[in-house]
Amino acid sequence: MSLSYPDIQLIRPPAVESFRFATTSITLPIGLAYISSSLKEHGFKVGILDAVGEAPKNRTGYYKGYLVGLGLKEIAEKINPNSKCVGISVIFTHEWPAVVKLISLIKEKFPNMPIILGGEHISAMPEFSLITSNADYIVMGEGEETIIELIKAIKNRKTFQKIEGIGYNINNQVVINNRRNRRQSIDKISYPDWDSFNVKGYYENRFVGGMYSDNLTIPILATRGCPYQCTYCSAPNMWLPLWIPRDPILVVDEIEYYVKKFGAGNFPFQDLTAIIKRDWIKAFCEELIKRELNINWQLPTGTRSEAIDSEIAFLIKKSGMISMAYAPESGSEETRKYIKKKMKTDRLFDSIDAAAQADLNVAVFLVIGFPHDLPKHLEENKNFVERLAKHGVTDLSVGFYMALPGTELFHSLYDSNKIKLDIKYFKHILDSLALFPSQKYCPAISRTNLFLWKLKFYIKFYKSKKLKNSKSSLLNSVIIALRGVFSSEGHNSKLQTAFRNAYISLVDTVKSKSKRWISKKEELNLFEEWDNIYRQIRKEKLSKNIVKVSPADTRDL
Fold first, then answer.
1. Superfamily of 1-204+482-518 according to CATH
2. CA 205 to CA 92: how far, in whole Å?
3. Contact at 8 Å (CB) between 268 and 210?
4. Alpha-carbon distance 476 to 471, whole Å?
5. What percent of the chain has pLDDT above 70?
6. Domain B12-binding spans what residues (predicted)?
7. How many other CB atoms are there within 10 angstroms of residue 472's CB atom?
8. Domain residue spans in the chain?
9. Are the C-beta atoms of residues 354 and 313 closer than 8 Å to each other?
10. Within a 13 Å sphere around the CA of 511, how many CA atoms are in the beta-carbon half?
11. 8, 84, 265, 349: most buried, per Cβ within 10 A?
């Protein structure tokens, strides 16, 4: 990618992967691409340094798993010395240690280079992000408007006090300004700047998100935010509890644009909750069908069930949907009540039945190991997964609870001294879809039993599945999944994609052990003071009544 532009250098840091059975979390960086478009629209010259896109086959051993992309020193060396500032996207908490090291390398080479951070991790831990790194500024929440004001202030040497949605260091003091209100209309936001990214390279390396397709893949955002406030979810930190859809006709316009410009044919929607309003999804599907674009689209991150009835399910299928997911998180009504997951079981199964009748490929996401979980809750999950299979669900994904920073559950556990921000904590963030949990926060169930319950759920689900012309649904599921490991063609289920990614991530984990990101000693030193820093931040906020002590019992949230 060209690095000839001096105003701002936007960096996508190396992605993080580990051995696990799941579809890949590595996708084109849609947030960064939106920021780039906004900057260019306002006349700024932008350089893109995409660590993954420039070295998609490079692997470096990490504190857990491995980094995918350019080495940290290589990134620092590639920064244009004429850039007026650097912007780094930090979406996931497990990326933070690598970003901290990257910032230190940039500051060694360019001591006076302003560094701006943005993304979901930054929005969840703003003070912590500034104090534990040498970054100068942070952007919280939606960034398109905020980044423009911030860079103008940096270029013109203006003050920052009135810029909403930022934090900054001044005289070794951290200042966090008021959050910026969400944009109420997102229809006029420019398309992501995919011209500056290696779109084909991501596809060729199967960094596509969702189920693998043999069509060129570009992610889409049709909506922003989520109106719900689940206690385990980090989305409210980034988006606030607000769901804003784009005009469905304009979303189809964007898809058609990518079909013509890039030859794209597969579109995973990266929305938090794409389908909420029945009228919206109906209009979207009808427009796709009318234009005869002959594309595939997916909802890999999960969606609501309320708007999907028989009519909508058949429209979704006809419009090119190849994979979708529901995320009830638990088959236990009591658990869903405790985590504020507002979902009715009967309505979910009505929607699943409609999807099955339309021959839609449907996955369901479950999470076990919530702090309040008891064996009785997992027993309810066991019955639930059997019912899912018999109602026509294609695939099941069972993850271990992870205490994401900034969430209600996290604060409850942290204020009760059940979480320490050490290397073990950061490792467990990567273990949600591992075979065995490295950490657990439910006193009533051991790590071994969590693993065994997870195994039981998978066996129960795939044994109970209705498969045509098959005497053994479990064996047939495994055979189908194994076919996907070495196939160069598109997959028919998420299980195939998960098996392939498990195989690749296992091989890459072994290979990456010969090349570490930093020494083990430096790694331990990096994490050493982080818990003390965060505890001091929390203590100060409590003393100033900025926040309240969270209840020790997570059932009281």
1. Cobalamin-binding domain (3.40.50.280)
2. 21
3. yes
4. 8
5. 97
6. 13-161
7. 12
8. 1-204+482-518, 208-401+440-466
9. yes
10. 13
11. 8
What was the pLDDT predicted at 488? Answer: 65
Q: Could you tell me the CATH superfamily of domain 208-401+440-466?
A: Aldolase class I (3.20.20.70)
CA distances from 167 to 193, 194, 308, 435 (A): 26, 28, 41, 38
Token pair listed for 132: 């534990």
| Tokens, residue 269 | 């929607």
Residue 533 tokens read as: 């820093």
Residue 3 predicted with pLDDT over 90: no
DSSP 8-class letter at 232 = T
Compute the average pLDDT of residues 515-524. Answer: 95
pLDDT at position 508 is: 87
pLDDT of residue 347: 94
Cα dihedral 92, 97, 98, 102 in deg (nearest 10): 120
Sign of CA dihedral 362, 277, 268, 273: negative
Q: Round to whole Å and give the CA distance between 553 and 557.
A: 8
Helix (H, G, I), strand (E, B) or coil at 180: coil
| Nearest Cα to Cα of residue 8 among 30, 54, 39 | 39
**145-158 as b/e, with b when 16 or more CB fall inside 10 Å?**
bbbbbbbebbeeee
The answer on pLDDT for 5 being more than 70 is no
Q: Under DSSP, is residue 286 helix (H, G, I), strand (E, B) or coil?
A: helix
190 vs 494, higher pLDDT: 190
d(Cα 525, Cα 267) in Å, to the nearest integer?
42
- For the beta sheet containing 296-303, the strands, ordered from the edge strand earlier in sequence to the opposite edge, are 266-268, 296-303, 321-329, 362-368, 395-400
d(CA 85, CA 154): 8
- 411: nearest Cα among 542, 235, 526: 542
Q: What is the pairing mode between strands 166-170 and 137-139?
A: antiparallel
> Angle, nearest 10°, between helix axes 447-464 and 375-390?
20
Q: How far apart are CA 25 and CA 5, in angstroms?
A: 30
- For 246, the token pair is 């784009």
pLDDT number for residue 467: 56
Helices assigned H by DSSP within 240-332:
248-262, 278-291, 310-318
Q: What is the mean pLDDT of residues 414-435?
A: 93
Average pLDDT, the chain: 92
Which structure tokens are listed for 441? Answer: 């926060």
Dihedral, CA of residue 326, residue 230, residue 538 and residue 523, to nearest 10: -10
Rounded mean pLDDT of 91-104?
A: 97
In angstroms, what CA-CA distances link 473 with 464, 476, 526? 7, 5, 48
Rounded CA gap, 286 and 251, in Å? 12
Residue 172, judged by CB atoms within 10 A of its CB (0-12, 13-18, 19+), counts as: exposed
pLDDT in tens, 361-386: 999 999 999 999 999 999 999 999 99
Quick one: pLDDT at residue 305? 87
Residue 243 in tokens: 């769901």
Angle in degrees, CA 118, 122, 126, rounded to 5: 120
- Picking from 84, 182, 198, 190, the residue whose alpha carbon sits closest to that of residue 141 is 182
